[in-house]
Design goal:
alpha/beta; D-Maltodextrin-Binding Protein, domain 2; 2 domains; six-stranded mixed β-sheet; 15 helices
Length: 335
């Protein structure tokens, strides 16, 4: 009997809960199309998403005339499930995880690029393991079905290996980092701020990072597609708030770092080390990413590449349709 992937389990749960939610009142609290609606927005522990905490604490959603209930998830997987099951209207997540949800039947629309991972997703190994090729026969912990699992597969493929050449230990990201520090596994796939935890193991080092695969891990804001159709004004105001928040952070870097480091549970000094590994996207970079193109800097190209890879590695049951996945009009209308 073939082992089920986490993404498939989420898709099964989504089918059941979304049908119930739709029959009841929909994911917008019962507001009719065109009427004001509260936006339920989720995010989790990733440097490119902590600006949402700044937006919440500094009242920037309110300044843009939109009511937003922000929920922080200790478990990234729980945030993915919350959007897929109708318990959120929007969530910040990776492109490959959005495609996994869509392949399982979820209807989601990407309206904003938060950032690209440029080093803050890492495969960290114990002393004596100097390359990805050295992982053959080793125990590697990673949260199955998430972006760092994807990074691990990319790194293995580049080294001429497959998942069958290692002993995969599926754990939630925080538990994976802890298991690595405790010496229970030989390597771990984690994202910041959990990279700080993993590197606490004496002599450990990153043997592969998202910097090695430019454009492979774009992070974005995905909305429930029906919410986008029914409440475009709210979506526009949320997107505008993102860019206003980036301006506020630029003008108030010290206070912003304090807010984001506190949310991440790390020191301000550690938080500042994440800057180079996460490239926050400006409006201009968003416009370029949403423009169709034939290289990894363009979302449509990257989505097609990731979709094929997910099917090839059985992280998704079938290649999802990309129709309606990318909606650039909100970024285009932002000021």
């Amino acid at each position: 009997m073939r082992r089920r992937h986490l993404t498939e389990l989420l898709a099964v749960a989504a089918c059941v809960v979304v049908l119930a939610a739709t029959a009841a009142c929909g994911g917008d609290g019962g507001a009719r199309p065109g009427q004001p609606a509260t936006v339920r927005l989720g995010f989790s522990a990733w440097p490119g998403w902590f600006p949402w905490q700044v937006a919440q604490e500094k009242g920037l959603f309110k300044e843009n005339g939109v009511t937003v209930e922000v929920t922080y998830f200790d478990s990234y997987t729980d945030s993915l499930q919350a959007l897929s099951t109708g318990n959120l209207d929007a969530n910040s997540q990776t492109l490959n995880d959005t495609l996994s949800s869509v392949s399982g039947g979820a209807k989601q629309t990407i309206v904003l690029v938060n950032d690209n991972s440029t080093g803050n997703d890492q495969i960290i190994a114990a002393p004596g393991i100097n390359s990805v090729a050295d992982l053959r026969g080793r125990k590697v912990a990673v949260e199955q079905g998430t972006v760092d699992h994807y990074l691990l597969l990319l790194a293995l493929e580049k080294a001429g290996l497959t998942e069958r050449d290692i002993t995969l230990t599926p754990l939630l990201t925080d538990a994976a980092a802890a298991a690595f520090v405790a010496g229970q596994v030989d390597a771990v796939g984690v994202f910041a701020p959990f990279t700080t935890t993993a590197l606490g193991r004496s002599g450990s080092r990153a043997i592969a990072t998202s910097k090695d695969f430019p454009g492979a891990i774009p992070d974005h804001l995905a909305f429930d597609t029906e919410f986008v159709s029914d409440h475009p004004d709210e979506v526009q105001k949320v997107v505008q708030t993102w860019f206003d928040t980036l301006k506020w952070i630029t003008a108030n870097p010290g206070e912003a770092v304090t807010i984001m480091a506190r949310r991440g549970g790390v020191s301000e000094a550690d938080y500042q080390t994440y800057n180079a590994g996460t490239t926050i996207f400006t409006r201009e970079q968003n416009l370029a990413a949403f423009t169709p193109g034939a290289d990894p800097t363009h979302l449509d190209h990257q989505a097609d590449q990731i979709a094929e890879f997910l099917v090839k590695t059985e992280l998704a049951p079938a290649k999802p349709s990309l129709d309606g996945l990318l909606e650039p009009k909100f970024v285009q209308a932002a000021t």
